[in-house]
Design a protein that fits this description.
alpha/beta, elongated, Transcription Regulator spoIIAA, about 15% strand, about 160 residues
Length: about 160
């Protein structure tokens, strides 16, 4: 009996779990199928499954491998008991959860539209901020030298 059924829908793979425990070999097979089809986003439908702690490790493996490929995993169809198991083990915060397959696909489509490449911005260096070509760099203070009160350098004041 297959443990997982795969179908394509709206640019993502929809995975329906039909039996637990979901073994690691099945997860690897899913990743191979996703790589062959070119999909990096997946919706995992857990509708009708009783809570099973053996489901946790394969889900984390699938999530990690999809993230390596810059993909996303969205869970849907969680029963109240399964959701409570995920909440008790702090896993609910790791996964994006939607009530049904259509809303999960809409969530993926929304993220695909908003995850367009953006122009890169210069990163701040040492908390100073971006360096602009027309603005001078802020002066760095030397250790042990206090600025003078009247704004002139200490060497001109006679204080060293």
């Amino acid at each position: 009996m297959p443990q997982l059924k795969i179908r394509k829908a709206r640019g993502a793979a929809v995975l329906a779990v039909t039996a637990v425990p979901l073994c690691e070999a099945v997860v690897r097979e899913v990743l191979v199928v996703l790589a062959k089809t070119g999909y990096c986003n997946a919706v995992l439908d857990l509708k009708g499954l009783a809570p099973d702690p053996s489901l946790v490790k394969p889900l984390l493996t699938l999530r990690r491998d999809l993230q390596k490929r810059r993909g996303r995993l969205v869970l849907c169809g969680l029963s109240g008991e399964t959701e409570e198991l995920f909440r008790a083990t702090w896993l609910l915060g790791l996964f994006e959860v939607r009530p049904d397959v259509d809303s999960a696909l809409a969530c993926l489509r929304f993220h695909l539209e908003t995850d367009r490449p953006r122009k890169s911005r210069p990163t701040p260096r040492n908390g100073v901020g971006p360096v602009h070509p027309d603005k001078p760099r802020p002066a760095r203070r030397r250790k042990g030298v206090r600025p003078s009160r009247n704004g002139t350098p200490n060497s001109l004041n006679g204080r060293d």
